[in-house]
Amino acid sequence: MFLVKYPLDRICVKSGVLCPNCQxxxxxxxxxxxxxxxxxxxxxxEEDLKELRTGNYIKSFDFGDEVIVILKGDWDKASLDKxxxxxxxxxxxxxxxxxEGEGVKKLMEQLLYPATILGINTLWLPDGSxxxxxxxxxxxxxxxxxxxxxxxxxxxxxxxKDIKITFE
Length: 168
Known about the structure:
Blueprint: H1 10-15, H2 20-28, H3 35-46, E1 56-62, E2 66-72, H4 77-91, E3 94-99, H5 104-112, E4 119-124, E5 130-136, H6 141-144, H7 148-159, E6 162-167
Protein name: Transcription elongation factor NusA-like protein
Keywords: Elongation factor, Protein biosynthesis
GO molecular function: translation elongation factor activity
């Protein structure tokens, strides 16, 4: 039986006691301490969900009321939705599972679904920094209503870049 690969040892995650190697990964920032309960919940789900028996865990982000998990593997949308639903019930907060490795636009499409992305532009600012502008059709504004700032913060954290969402 194949299992998802994690950056920390399974025994360390399940027990909550980190070996020196795993402790070093947490202290260096390679793995955030907030990711450990998410990894533990995913490991527990592997026993029940056959969908979770392949692939790699990449990263997760805990935004308080919502968790975003990025995995790498060969899952379809239905499997990702099933994993997200089970993870939500385990963690007691909303969860979204995204696939990594298909580019920035695909990652954003998964995050902002069902809104459509018209394009992504890079804007270079006078101070030398850059800002990504995500263009979404006006008709899809209803999908993000009241959540624009939340999604902007999610994308900025995940990509490490300043993001602006515009509606055309």
